[in-house]
Amino acid sequence: MAGKGIQFSDMLGMLETQLADVPEHRTGQNGHYEIGDAGPAAFAVFYMQSSSFLAHQRDMQRKKGQSLFKITRIPNNGQIRNLLDPVEPALLGAVFWGCMIVWWRVGSWRAIVGLLAHN
Question: Considering the entire predicted model, what is its pTM?
Answer without folding.
Answer: 0.67
